[in-house]
Amino acid sequence: MDMRVEYMKSKKVLTM
């Protein structure tokens, strides 16, 4: 559950 959230957060940060 945490891995998915962290992955999404990392992608958002990279996209930003």
Structural classification: mainly alpha
Radius of gyration: 7 Å
State the order of secondary-structure elements, H for helix, E for strand.
H
On the 0 to 100 scale, the average pLDDT is 81
- Give the % helix: over 70%
Largest sheet: none
Q: Helix segment count?
A: 1
Q: What's the total count of β strands?
A: 0
- Sequence stretches where pLDDT stays below 50 over 5 or more residues: none
Q: Which percent range describes the beta-strand content?
A: under 5%
Give the overall shape.
rod-shaped
Q: What's the N-to-C terminus distance?
A: 23 Å
Topology:
Elements: H1 2-15
3D structure, described in words:
The structure is a single chain. It is rod-shaped and about 25 Å long. It has one helix spanning 2-15. It has 16 residues and is mostly helical.
Q: Brief overview, please?
A:
This protein is mostly helical. Helices cover 88% and strands 0% of the residues.
Output the keywords:
rod-shaped; mainly alpha; 16 residues
